[in-house]
């Protein structure tokens, strides 16, 4: 039976698009059941409509308390009975209560080589530190911000003359390769979170996750 996947977005949704395409092409054994945004103007909602995926918007600005927003989010998600919830550019910090409800079936992608640079402005921070490479990491979401067990990591070179915008575009290309691959592992039952560690094909993954080989197939 194919994995029921719900997506949380806030913006452009280019990762969402890569994932929807991978589902449509059978590279992910999954069925997108919902795209939920905290912003009504998120372009990702349009991408979902074009793909025929149900959408919903819950504006975080309608809630005075983060916990109430998260409770509303969880309720709508649960109605769609997801096996997996994929954060695809979802720019809100989730409460521990929310994370606990979906623990083990909540994935995120972060634009850095975690554990380096959790939080925002990752590209600027990598440039300012004089790093020679950066990247992206798919990880399970736990209560620690951008701190859950890593699943898959892609390295991206930092080139002379780079600025945050150029670097973001190069990293985003890598994100579009690794996110469908990691989600396909989960959807086909190969990837699990056990005892605060990510496991692939019955083996624990290293702390930085599996290393993505550039040039390899996306899934
Ligand atoms: C990506 O860089 C993702 O890693 C970060 O936000 C960006 C979202 O881009 N969390 P998009 O909405 O998928 O185009």
Protein architecture, described:
- With 219 residues, the chain is α/β, with parallel strands linked by helices.
- It has a single domain (3-211), classed as Formyl transferase, N-terminal domain (Rossmann fold), CATH 3.40.50.
- Helices cover 32% and strands 25% of the residues.
- It contains six helices and eleven strands.
- It has helices spanning 14-24, 43-50, 66-79, 96-101, 122-128, 164-187, and strands spanning 3-9, 30-37, 55-57, 84-87, 106-110, 133-140, 150-157, 191-194, 197-200, 203-204, 210-211.
- Helix 1 (14-24) runs parallel beside helix 6 (164-187).
- The longest helix has 24 residues, at 164-187.
- The protein is globular and about 45 Å long.
- The model has no long low-confidence stretch (mean pLDDT 96).
Which ligands appear in the coordinates? 5-O-phosphono-beta-D-ribofuranosylamine
Instruction: Please trace the helix and strand order, writing H or E for each element.
Output: EHEHEHEHEHEEHEEEE
Global shape? globular
Strand content is 25-35%
Itemize the secondary structure elements and their pairings:
Elements: E1 3-9, H1 14-24, E2 30-37, H2 43-50, E3 55-57, H3 66-79, E4 84-87, H4 96-101, E5 106-110, H5 122-128, E6 133-140, E7 150-157, H6 164-187, E8 191-194, E9 197-200, E10 203-204, E11 210-211
Parallel strand pairs: 1-2, 1-4, 2-3, 4-5, 7-11
Antiparallel strand pairs: 5-6, 6-7, 8-9, 9-10
The chain binds 5-O-phosphono-beta-D-ribofuranosylamine.
Residues 11-16, 88-89, 109-111, 172, 175 line the site of 5-O-phosphono-beta-D-ribofuranosylamine (GRF).
């Amino acid at each position: 039976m194919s994995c029921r996947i719900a997506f949380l977005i806030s913006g452009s949704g280019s990762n969402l698009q890569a994932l929807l395409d991978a589902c449509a092409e059978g590279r992910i054994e999954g069925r997108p059941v919902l795209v939920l945004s905290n912003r009504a103007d998120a372009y990702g909602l349009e991408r979902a409509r074009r793909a025929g995926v149900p959408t919903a918007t819950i504006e975080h600005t309608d809630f005075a308390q983060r916990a109430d927003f998260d409770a509303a989010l969880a309720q709508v998600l649960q109605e769609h009975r997801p096996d997996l919830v994929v954060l695809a550019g979802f720019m809100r910090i989730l409460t521990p209560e929310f994370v606990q409800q979906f623990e083990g079936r909540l994935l995120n992608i972060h634009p850095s080589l975690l554990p380096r640079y959790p939080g925002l402005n990752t590209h600027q921070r990598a440039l300012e530190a004089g790093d020679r490479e950066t990247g992206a990491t798919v990880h399970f979401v736990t209560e620690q911000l951008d701190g859950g067990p890593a699943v898959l990591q892609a390295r991206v070179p930092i080139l002379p003359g780079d600025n945050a915008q150029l670097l973001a575009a190069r990293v985003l290309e890598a994100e579009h390769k690794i996110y469908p691959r990691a989600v396909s592992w989960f959807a086909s039952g190969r990837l699990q979170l056990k005892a605060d560690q990510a496991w692939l094909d019955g083996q624990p993954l290293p702390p930085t996750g599996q290393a993505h080989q550039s040039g390899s197939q996306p899934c």
